[in-house]
Amino acid sequence: MSENTRWPMARRTFVKCGAVSTGALLGTSGASARTDSKEPETEPADHGLLFPYQFRPGSRATVAASELDWQPDRFERSYQTHVITYDHAPSYRAFLFTEPNETLAPAQSLEFSGVERSAQTAGRGVVTVGLDFDFE
Length: 136
What we know:
Helix content: 10-25%
Distance between the termini: 91 Å
Radius of gyration: 28 Å
Order of helices and strands: HEEEEEEEE
Low-confidence stretches: 19-35
Shape: globular
Strand content: 35-45%
Number of strands: 8
Largest sheet: 6 strands, antiparallel
Mean pLDDT: 75
Number of helices: 1
């Protein structure tokens, strides 16, 4: 066999095998791109937890940072952690904890609608407060 006859055979084999393997790769990557993953449903927060020394009844606040990765060790389950600033004293910041599926957007204004008692927060040194977003 001469060198000219070896190359065409090798090229034909490469093209044949390359097309099959490329088709298999495209087929599997196309299937993985079509996975139906649903993100967890979120809803607006209607209550939250605050440390007692950071709670100012009847105050309006603005969300400064949302969905932080930190929370106190004393919580037995996970919460979303947010930082709020009080409108009457913007330099005063407080942690606001909400349920994992409840969201607060940065720069969102809120008002505390009152103190709620909860068996879940008993003994943890936090105050459960109602959150109101429809004020003016």
